[in-house]
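Weekly puzzle thread! Below is a chain. First person to post its structure in token form gets bragging rights.
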Amino acid sequence: MFQQHGVQSSWHTPLIVVSGMILNKGDALSPFRGVVHQDAPAHSIIEAAFMRLNRVTLLCVFSALCCLGVLQAETKPHVVLIMADDLGYGDVQPLNPDSKIPTPAFNRLAAEGITFTDAHTPSAVCTPTRYGLLTGRYCWRTELKRGVLNGYGSPLIETTRETLGTLMKRAGYRTAIVGKWHLGLGLPGNQKDGFDFSKPLTHHPGVLGFDTSLVIPASLDFPPYVYFRNGLATSTEIVEQKPVGFPAFTRSGPRAKDFDLRGCLDRLTDEAVSIVRSIPQSTSPTFLYFPLTAPHKPVLPSQAFAGSTTTGPYTDFLRQVDATVGRVLSALDQAGVMDDTLVIVTSDNGSFMRRIAPNMPDHMEDESVQGYHPATHKANGPWRGTKADIWEAGHRVPFFVRLPQHALAGSRQNSVVGLVDIMATLAEFTNTPKHAAAGPDSVSFLPLLHGKALERAPLICHSSGGMFAIRQGAWKLIAGNGSGGREQPKGKAFGEPWKLVNLDRDPQEQKDVSNSHPQVFTRLKKQLLTIKGQD
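Winning reply:
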């Protein structure tokens, strides 16, 4: 009856309801003071208090509490999950101290929370990572074996599958999503005959557990350029968007009149901030999932940030992304709920900005170039490759966790974790068991949030071209003979020879040590094929 649910009680000050009075654990408990120590568990305080009441009073009070429904578990913390789009490991100063691009919001997260240095997306591109995040299941288990959906793609998540939305609703949360969806929306119509934006979507986030939603269909360079609120277009007045080259890269297609490409991130941020500001008025804890549209192409920083750096539009955009995160953090401060909130900030894959040879112009010199000289900016930090690759740069991403009450502030965590693990972690964090078939690939990293050790079972990463890698400890086995993405040689999935690397000794993944460590190679190959199964 008096068991406390959810996270460790040290993160909260539980409220005790006794005969209409609300007391904190440390409050004066007259006539109960002296019965128990003020640091005793809440159930000990209540039990000791009730021992001082006569049996008749106890029966009356207990009956009244049961009838009124006020004898309840500790309030659960709010959860805010922000996922940037194509933000590289080296794009934030806590992971790239040599960076000249200010990222004060990420610096704050590092100072007040945990910086994960070995966090990975399930895929090196957008759609499959979002699927893995929301379902706790690798996307290559679906019909999408490589690449991404476009803005018109068929819905990828079945309505019967558990998602973070349905999980958190079962945990008692009000659930909201603001931002980029990219998992198929069920647009009425087809590309041949056209789409009818006046009709409701058949597969919007509301059918997958989210109470409220304001989303765009896919990446900001994919049409249709339309906002959908709770399954309905915010405008049905459509114009034709013309194609634009990099850095403002945009594909042609229908665009709603209320859709401003440059202003999109700010509009979505305004919505996210409004949800945060409403938290104090809500009777339920809040789960906000905020998948950003940036710094993915089109690289269109708002006027407030355009020209704010000397290294081109991309780094101007990074400053806006940082400021976006900062606005959400400030809103939590202003609402008075920051220390009652779990904040997770990460990215869906690595940056698309390549390393450019010193003898070639880079983005700072020519903004149409999609890359930097390493001396100017290392978007993916020290890692090999780029977005889409099976190399580390494709899927090793920024990952910050700010716990309630500043727990483990300023710490760094070097254990391997995956975005696919967020489902199991939030299930355990909220004391809400997953359904039996839910999140089959998700492993809770909650012990790490309690300052305990955890060595994850092997983690699978996947490239845009369908190449697999398995990771355990310092060992990484690539099941193919190239990048599997954009960097040359691209190679083929499962093409020989496979490559075994030790990332502690060879972070650039240059040397294949399969022959010198045959037992490790054999073990990881067997584990990969077992996990993959028939999918």
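Puzzle host: Confirmed. Bonus trivia for everyone else. Residues 1-10, 12-53, 58-73 have pLDDT under 50 and may be disordered.
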